[in-house]
Amino acid sequence: MRTFTLLFSALVLGTMALKAQTIATFDTLHLAKADTFYVNYTASGTDVGFNDGHAHFPCIYDTSYGGLWSSGFAYSNMTDSVTSGFINQYSAKTAQGYGGSTDYLAVNCIDPVTYANNIRLNLTGTAIGKPVQGFYATNSTYAYNSMRDGDAFAKKFSNGDWFLLTVQGYSGGILQPASVGIYLADFLFPDPTKNFILNTWKWVDLLPLGSVDSIQISLTSSDNGMFGMNTPAYFCMDNFTTDEPLPASSLSVSNATTPTAKIYPNPATNRLYVDVTDNSVRQIAILDIAGRILNNYNVVPDGHNEINTSTLPVGVYMLKLSGDNNTVTTRFIKE
């Protein structure tokens, strides 16, 4: 297991305080009823997408053949984790969004011009040219059941198969070489009992891509034929999180004492240690990626705080240190 220690100085935390996170949860996008999804045939063949947080999510519908979803992102509250096939292309295998939320994105990852299995989304506003924290991903019911059982176009997955989500960033209109990825299905383990098809929400960390203007998401598979990938080019997304600078007017640190602490190990398993070196720190809080407070702790007198993280689900969390005159946050991972 990889571990490292983060030592936060006043300078580092001061820099972090200049950043804000914006999370596109898709929960405020309107759907008329339960078990439905976004459809828009008003401009066939062109982008009728939507904005949430600091990103534009393109979507293309086509009125041909009675109407179909050609490409892009569609917000959904579908809960059908059972029905197989193309008719159930808007459902997540989890049957809900990350953290039990109602809405999430279904993603049809096909370029409508080249038919390559990739799609691009653009950052907006103050997020342009800044790092992207990441997003949560899981399989759609359509892709999951296809890999589990096989169908008329795709094989049932067996040893040696895989389904990979890869993300790259654009900067200045140029696709950058750095990439990050997660396996949506992995049957490459020497021990076949470890093979899996993802059916939970998994964090995709995009910070290694650096500052970007937009991102490209690609899907690849071990199952391919003469017309390209056989595995359905679908997955689901939630909590797309960007970083952007705060305006100077929102800061109040000029005369404040910035809390400092050593936080380790990161990633954490059952315990997280927070050694506070600033007497002004009064409280420690753990928040989920959506900003909901999960636990609060009073700082112990000697500054060595041991936090039980064994009950936290695997994922990414925020740690908030509150001082007399300032509050700062950082991120840690629970494995």
SSE layout:
Layout: E1 4-8, H1 10-16, E2 19-24, E3 50-52, E4 55-57, E5 59-62, E6 68-76, E7 104-108, E8 118-123, E9 130-138, H2 141-149, E10 162-171, E11 174-186, E12 196-197, E13 202-205, E14 211-212, E15 214-221, E16 224-225, E17 228-229, E18 234-245, E19 261-266, E20 271-276, E21 283-288, E22 293-298, E23 304-308, E24 315-322, E25 327-334
Q: Quick recap of the structure?
A:
The protein has about 325 residues and is mostly beta strands.
Rg over CA atoms:
21 Å
The portion of residues assigned to helices is under 10%
Structural class: mainly beta
Helices and strands, in order, run as EHEEEEEEEEHEEEEEEEEEEEEEEEE
CATH structural architecture of the largest domain: Sandwich
Q: Unreliable segments (pLDDT under 50, ≥5 consecutive)?
A: 1-18, 246-259
User: How would a crystallographer describe the biggest sheet?
Assistant: 8 strands, antiparallel
- The shape, in one word, is globular
Termini separation (Å)?
A: 9 Å
CATH topology name of the largest domain, in short, is Jelly Rolls
What count of domains describes the coordinates? 2
The tally of strands reads 25
